[in-house]
Amino acid sequence: MQDHPSDSAGARSMFDLVSNDPDASLIDRSSIGEDELRQIGELMNALGELRAAERRLSEAAQRYMRLNETDMRALHFLIVTGYRGELVTPGQLAQHLGISTASTTKLLDRLERGAHIVRAPHPTDRRALTVSITPETHRAARESVGRQQARRFHAAARLDAAEREIVIRFLREMASDLETPDGASAD
């Protein structure tokens, strides 16, 4: 097994509450027992380990495909929309990525030079173009990133339905809380 920084005892405590708020100035934990505090700390550290694993996976995929993060997100979008049989325009891609149309044009130029995508006339709108991933890039993405991402399914499948519901609720609540401005209630 390969050693990662998250394998050390110091890294395991990087995200727990006591390590990040030793004087309890951010979170009042006076009503939380030691066992609960320890378990919450383990949960926060497990999330940190997941983020680190995802970062390593993303970096490895980017190196393998010789692309940056936005390029990879664009290709993923094109793969998913392709499976759905949807046509994608540069404007739709820009909206999905949250980037300007000028940045999208540069991204598409770069991906086209690398033989990752093809631009073609839209079949029903003479003014528009469609963007699709090349079969070679789709195959490479599926064999590298796709196989790695499929491992998430196996972890979820090992949970029973009730456990999955708890994890889903937790992750959605955490995402919502992280997007809630300071001082505002997420409820």
UniProtKB/TrEMBL annotation:
It holds the Pfam family MarR_2. Residues 40-176 form the HTH marR-type domain. It comes from the Bacteria. PROSITE patterns: HTH_MARR_2 (PS50995). InterPro entries: HTH_MarR-typ (IPR000835), MarR/SlyA-like (IPR039422), WH-like_DNA-bd_sf (IPR036388), WH_DNA-bd_sf (IPR036390). The keyword Coiled coil applies. The keyword Coiled coil applies. Keywords: Coiled coil. SUPFAM superfamilies: Winged helix' DNA-binding domain. Residues 43-70 form a coiled coil. This is MarR family transcriptional regulator. It comes from Microbacterium nanhaiense.
